[in-house]
Amino acid sequence: MSTLIRHSSTGIPLSFIVKNDLATWQAQQPIFLQNWLNSCDFAKQGLALVVNPQSGALSQVYCLVNSVDDFWLAGELASKLPAGIYQVQECEQQLEQIALGFILGGYEFSEYKAKGAVKAQLAIADEALFARITRQANAINLVRDLVNTPAADMMPQHLSQVMADLAHTYNGQFNEWIGDELLEQNYPTIHMVGRASENKPRLLDLHWGAADAPLITLVGKGVCFDSGGLDLKPSSGMRNMKKDMGGAAHVIGLAQLIMAANLPIRLRVLVPAVENAVSRNAFRPGDVIKTRKGIMVEIDNTDAEGRLVLCDALTEAQNDNPELIIDFATLTGACRIALGTELPGFFSTERDVANGIIDAGIAVSDPVWQLPLFEQYKSLLKSDVADMANCASTPFGGAITAALYLKEFVEPTTPWVHFDVMAWNIRSLPGRPVGGEALGIRAVFNYLQSRFK
Q1: Which of 102, 125, 148 is the last residue before a domain boundary?
Q2: Residues 6 or more apart from 39 whose CB is under 8 A from it?
Q3: Count of domains forming the chain
Q4: Which terminus of the chain is less hemmed in, N or C, by CB atoms within 10 Å?
Q5: Which of 233, 290, 378, 407 is an active site residue?
Q6: Is 144 known to be catalytic?
Q7: Considering only CA atoms, which of 441, 451, 446 is closest in space to residue 218?
Q8: What is the pTM for the complete model shown?
Q9: What is the pLDDT of residue 450?
Q10: What angle do CA 227, 110, 440 make, to 5 degrees?
């Protein structure tokens, strides 16, 4: 549970003043406060800490903002305010987003360094609101923690433990297939990609919810470190490849949010967890693999491994006829070229589902952007020796061709959504420190919550 929020009805008053209203508002305040705000250059500094002249204690905080509807207006306050408990004044309609932005801005990955003392906290009086904010913050920070953890401590066996613990916490069921069991159970591409690592590949499988509830299946790319395989990445491209299990982190965080909120759905989470390493038994360019679905795939590039582990998991996801399959993956640099690192792209076979997720994202300030499944590009995956290649003959439209590859493993009757996410902040923004990041999971959760009531 986040230590930046507490269930309380008292705290130092914290008020947000809109810049366009500052002159009018300040003129209506007592002379003492007007002078105080001028002395601390409130109009320029944007933050004023007012001290009680008798006791010397902090009595009021004012924060200057462009709009009280800005989701991230409190995203820097956790690090700026002195130790204490604060209570937001007015802004009742915006309180949830203010508090969530405050908590997310105070996030710090401190597993490997001395933890700083918690200073500022927000008081939330309403118990239901407190629980809702806590669930969201915990899910997002779980994603961040998983992505930020160094690969040596976040290999397939570690992801397995995380999912097993989630199943135990929320009374779900957890199963996994490890190493050569993947071959015995016909998950050949997952095994192929992960077989070169001493950390055995796994397919992780979590079930939760009532048997008669609508089934939603989440699939997450769990490449715990991606060296590129024999098509080795340069050092610059390999530096942050601990984040290549970001798709798995997203579906794990989303699953926790769904289970904690007790949504009336039946949930399945599939994570193919591997390390794409180099050794004498690493898979090679030019190899041909028969996938779980039976499609023969030629390996054009061993650094296009994410779609290989996902294709067997997507085939498995069809088995129990889900109402919707959603996958998350740090799949292509091409999607980052198209949309940048902060706007997650997604593809969908169902227009209504896509529109619903877009609208749900807008409603909670978690924007997502739909990209096209442009079928004309499917021919770029042609192989001379197999049914298809694992990557296209050209880098152009790389996010689309990757999605079209995955689409071959989804039944036409099954609604499917594929997210291609960065899972990493390359710059610090209010509420979003540099490092691992959850993108799109609040949008998807809001969509599922609206659809399944």
Answers
A1: 125
A2: none
A3: 2
A4: C
A5: 233
A6: no
A7: 441
A8: 0.96
A9: 97
A10: 65
